[in-house]
Amino acid sequence: MIMGYPILFHISFLFVPFFILLSTIKVVNGGFSVKMIRINSTKVAHLLDNVQSPTHADLGVHILEMSFGNPSTKYYGIIDTGSDLIWTQCLPCDNCFPQKYPYFDPKKSSTYTNVYCQEDECNLLKESVKGCSSQNQCTYRFSYLDTSITQGLLALDTITLQSSSGGVIPLQYMIFGCGHNNSGGFDEKVMGIVGLGQGPLSLISQIGPSFGGRRFSYCLVPYYADYNLPSIMSFGSGSEVIGDGVVSTPLIKKESKSFYYVTLQGISVGDTYLSFHSSSKGNMIIDSATTFTILPQKLYDQLVEEVKKQVPLQPIINDPQFGDRLCYRTINLEQPIITTHFEGADIQLKTIQTFYQPNFGVFCLAFGSIRSDFGIYGNLAQTNYLIGFDLESELVSFKAIHCNLHQSLV
């Protein structure tokens, strides 16, 4: 957790976690498939619907609402495009963080199935994170840079999403982590993480082939919004981001296959353009579980200096509460407009996407730095944009929209 800013760094995703890189999935008939995923036949009735579920903003992260097991129980997991595993806290909870909802009890789900060490699902785990129990059950241990961990059994069960017609879509034999030993700075509303990366265990890789391809879109509401006023995340056919005002940037393939790499060419503060000094493709990772946008040190320093020039206020200095962050005391900050220039896509960001308010009457720049030649496009900058990830067309698309009004794509 970043000292002095607990309101935003709920799980300390300011810097990239130690993501777990998984093996690639098989190509079948020109599409992608994980062979052991079997979708409940009841989903056929929903083929003309959009597959979707509500999302909520919560203290620096965004939460997807869905259900686990049969009978189904509500589940709230952090939306994470930077990792793959879907996991939830499970009984018996030997060491779990507190949550306001009951822990998932595998014994109460009629569709819960153990995964054994010799089975194909277990082999989807990277060797460095998988193990085998004395009962021959497949075990896992994932860790993140902020020292958060999840450790438990790999299993299969039903995950239920919603449809645009108001019905439900149960998805059987979904691979997930049943976490019996979990720790980290999680809020009590959180029950685990929903991995949405490109690896074979992610939610989108498991369900994409059954719903029109590996595509999904979300619209992240700003943190000031009422938690009970959700937005919508959509999957497969119908999740495409189209229409007036849409801009798109190519996804770049790199060695770390789970991440969504794009190319940032530069940043503008008002009319002043600052070039990204790295000429390499794929120099930014779009990560829905990182709060701030993280830039290489040189570009970050230039951004801070240019914002200082264009904001007609004196920055806060010598206040240990804010450290070396660029902050201003004001009840209203409307300038400057910051534009991120991705390859083929200019994204204009307003104050709500580039500053945060740790206290009433204080605005702080929502960017951080890293000593590297790549950066991270955080979730604050993504708010109030409908963002579509199309793994088939290898594009990420953006459309400006008020996300708290985004209730459906139909």
From TrEMBL:
Name under which the protein is recorded: Putative nepenthesin
Listed GO biological process terms: proteolysis
Family label: Belongs to the peptidase A1 family.
Keywords: Aspartyl protease, Glycoprotein, Hydrolase, Protease, Secreted
Superkingdom in the source lineage: Eukaryota
Organism classification: Eukaryota, Viridiplantae, Streptophyta, Embryophyta, Tracheophyta
Species assigned in the record: Lupinus albus (White lupine)
Phosphoprotein recorded as keyword: no
Subcellular location: Secreted
